[in-house]
Design a protein that fits this description.
Blueprint lengths: L2 H20 L17 H5 L13 E3 L5 E5 L2 E5 L3 H13 L3 H4 L16 E5 L2 E4 L5 H11 L20 H10 L7 H9 L52 E7 L4 H4 L13 E5 L17 E4 L7 E2 L3 E3 L2
Parallel strand pairs: 6-9
Antiparallel strand pairs: 1-2, 2-5, 3-4, 5-10, 6-7, 7-8
């Protein structure tokens, strides 16, 4: 073969070799081919540890139940003076003539909802429904904790008779947390700052409450009122059971609390409750800004919880 043809073939061979090398994985110094490895931090993250992509996006959480994505945004937390006055008038109107002789709704009952303020929130995941008896039973089997003996409704009813510590331990067992009071209210009201999860008008058909309790005079299976869903798709944010929140309760916290991702005071005696229970009759208890609280060891047939996952 003459020199010219030899040069042409060497050139072609070089191109082929370069093409093959371009498609090969990187090789270490010992010549053993290895596939590219994803970033460890991303590889180890669970779906509930990563941001969602759209409001109401659903994923399966670590305890097998659905979490919904609550995107970052702002909302008006609390109530205005006019809203407090209107609610007090509503409460008085629900009293019988005999009750009105001895009682009226004092302003201090709702003053802890004041002042209303704009709060900025980061995105987070929230349980679409409250934790059920079945879920809590499975948790007790895994941890050797005692199941609350008086939480005796059906498997799909919200677990009740759990104190704040019970709720916290359940959430942490699955790598989750209780929602903060601000997270809870934001998920219930949304950027429009609704009075009720479904809107601004009271509708007794959209929740489990004292006016439409079933024949067993108790809670309902979680998710039984889809028309009462909040803006992010969370169900039973009003009614069924009160829900423990992560925060310590402080009467005047709104007056000086931070305006970005508030987490409550640093210490306290009682913990926050939100949502309104199945055995309450006054509609004021089911407003999104309504606040309640109790001792950390308190248990009741009207108190349960749901979980959240805050994105770090």
């Amino acid at each position: 073969m003459d020199q010219g043809k030899r040069d042409i073939w060497l050139c072609i061979a070089g191109i082929v070799v370069l093409s093959l090398l371009a498609g090969c994985p990187d090789k270490p110094s010992d010549g053993v081919a290895v596939a590219p490895v994803p970033s460890p931090s991303r590889q180890e993250q669970k779906p509930w540890e990563q941001p969602g992509t759209e409001v109401g996006q659903e994923i399966v959480g670590p305890d097998g139940r659905t979490l919904v994505w609550v995107p970052a945004g702002s909302f008006r937390m609390g109530s205005t003076d006019d809203e407090v006055d209107q609610t007090l008038e509503q409460m008085d109107s629900e009293l019988t003539p005999e009750q009105k002789k001895h009682f009226h709704a004092p302003r201090w009952m709702l003053a802890h909802e004041l002042p209303a303020r704009t709060v900025e929130m980061d995105g987070f995941w929230l349980g679409k429904c409250e934790v059920t008896n079945r879920q809590y039973w499975e948790f007790c089997q895994q941890t050797s904790r005692a199941f609350p003996s008086e939480s005796d409704e059906g498997d799909d009813h919200p677990v009740a008779q759990v104190c704040w510590e019970d709720a916290r331990v359940y959430c942490e067992h699955y790598g989750l947390s209780l929602p903060t009071e601000a997270q809870w209210e934001y998920a219930a009201r949304g950027p429009e700052s609704r009075t009720y999860p479904w809107g601004d008008d009271w509708d007794p058909r959209k929740l489990c409450w004292g006016g439409n309790k079933g024949p067993d005079d108790a809670s309902s299976p979680v998710g039984s009122f889809p028309d009462g869903a909040s803006w992010c798709g969370a169900l039973d944010m009003s009614g069924n059971v009160y829900e423990w929140c992560a925060d310590w309760y402080q009467y005047d916290y709104y007056a000086g609390g931070p305006s970005s991702n508030p987490t409550g005071p640093g210490s306290g005696v009682k913990r926050v409750l939100r949502g309104g229970p199945w055995n309450a009759r006054g509609q004021q208890a089911f407003r999104c800004p309504n606040r309640n609280f109790h001792d950390v060891d308190y248990r009741s047939a009207g108190i349960g919880f749901r979980c959240a996952s805050t994105i770090e």
